[in-house]
UniProtKB/TrEMBL annotation:
This is Amidophosphoribosyltransferase. Its cofactor is Mg(2+); [4Fe-4S] cluster. Binds 1 Mg(2+) ion per subunit. [4Fe-4S] cluster binds at residues 247, 393, 445, 448. The keyword Transferase applies. It catalyses: 5-phospho-beta-D-ribosylamine + L-glutamate + diphosphate = 5-phospho-alpha-D-ribose 1-diphosphate + L-glutamine + H2O.
Amino acid sequence: MILQSDKPKEECAIYGIYNSKEAANFTYLGLYSMQHRGQESSGIVTTDGSHLYRYANMGLVANIFTQPKIKELIGDSAIGHNRYSTTGASFLRNAQPIRVESHLGPVALAHNGNLVNSWDIRNRLERDGSIFQTTIDSEVIVHLMAKSHKTDLLEALCDSLAQVRGAYSLLVLTPRYLVAVRDPNGFRPLVMGKRSDGAIVFASETCAFDITDTEYVRDVEPGEMVVIDHTGMRSLYPFPKAKPSLCIFEYIYFARPDSYIFEESVYKVRKSLGRQLARVMPVEADVIIPVPDSANIAALGYSEESGIPYQSGLIRSHYIGRTFIEPDQKIRDFGAKIKYNVVKEVVNGKRVVIIDDSVMRGTTSRKIIKMIRNAGAKEIHFRVSAPPTVAPCYYGIDIPTHKELIASTHTIEEIQKYLRVDSLAYLTLDTMHKAVEGHKGGGFCDACFTSNYPVEFQDHAGNQKSLFTEYATEE
């Protein structure tokens, strides 16, 4: 049985390091710290200045990279990738980083994000004779580079990226260069750091820096290309400027609370979301409990603002794999029960406020609420530290389709009745944005709450969809 989560699925993590004798080891540690961003496959590519060495496999970082495998990854520069599939099925051939050979020499690429016009480009390239080795959107970038008439790798990369649209934080490794690029809208995070030995490091989140004693320097800016080689580091801005569209869901759910992304503390923003929720959606209650782990900090903010005590009323098991054997199909709510258990002493006879960061289908939330009710809760009030999720994402987060999203097809009153709670309230859109007021990075993408997509996208047949139009994804 596959455990179906009622949460949006993770995206991907990328990590890169230039000029370190421990490049493979540090990349392993960085990927390990960002395991939350993808658990399907992991890979590392290193270079010694002459060749690229690659190893990737399905599964978790700690299980894939044994010490003998890391020793085979020779060189002082590396890039790595943890994958959760938003485009392309979960097969080993789709594991990243991608490594290819072309007239530009050996090239490896690691990509976090989703290209919204990749199917149109892929169909065109295949008609022109290109043979793809994977089903992931990232591969179109290297094919476009190989097809480019530019003989310089950096020019070919710019030529390739000028033809794609959507979300991409990229790391590109050759025997000569390490290149970090972020799309002009800046959808996905990408941070840069420096070690005391002079090594330059890039990662999706700063938690990958902490584990390797790397000092955070700054974010790679939207539309920026950072190039590092033996002559030093330089920044290029080869793309037209675009309105910043930073993914606000990174703060709400995805990033680790101990990370800094988009030049701000995830912990600080998440706590502010909880405080705002308490101000606009108060309720009289005896205890606040989060749905762990992603709602813990928002619940703490709600508790501090409201004065209602915070308790760990739900205990989450951290040892569940993506697949497990269900002992009896007749056991109802088994998936929720194996993942969460209620502390009866916390909820029995109490008016309980449950804080969660998001509700997608509502199925898991309903099961959790039933468990808390059965444990003796007198009242249950459900509060969500984000607006209702009404639309899927096409920029790198695997959010269900409109049809599957409960808030897209039901009113708040209907959802409350379905969940069987005494009250239900979401954070408003305006209040959510107040939590990130004064942010240095500029605007945010909130398309999953508004259906206002900042970049036009195409279906798999290449038919362009206008902004704010529903787009049915393949499931």
